[in-house]
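Researcher: Structure for this, please.
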Amino acid sequence: MRFVIDAYNLLFAIGRLTPRSGKDALVGARQWLMSRTRHAHQDADKVIVVFDGKSGSGAKPTGAIFSGPQEADDIIEDTIRRETVPGRLTVVSDDLRLREAARRKGCVVLRCLDYAEQYLLADPSTPTAPEESCSTAPPPGDERQTYLDLFKHLDDDPELGDPY
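Model: Predicted structure, token format:
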């Protein structure tokens, strides 16, 4: 499966960038996104992350495309149009224009938060803890008496009133 990601759309959707973010936040958000996509996908060469504008100073991250004078949406739409096996391309964006273009072509479409949840924020190396069962049974003998003794004074507290 190949992915093409509307980078700033994703970064704003997950809150890594806001309209008030400064240049340092922008650079940091780009680096975070590129690092997370490399970590999330076994074959990072099949992930294209498209940013609006120029890369600015510094080296351009591998897998990143900067739109230059074009809009990132135009580059993503061109990628969708050129796709020869649309069922193997996933387009990640909340932009209606891109989602519609991808659907018309037959590509898989993922909204930004869905992609983030499934790929960026999930850590496959961390095992999930089994859910603890919630039991209504009273604590065993000695433990139960410990709690009764500990909270006995509350029975006489007029501010608490009758619990029943």
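Researcher: Any notable elements?
Model: Strands lie at 2-6, 47-51, 64-66, 89-92, 108-110. Residues 126-139 have pLDDT under 50 and may be disordered.
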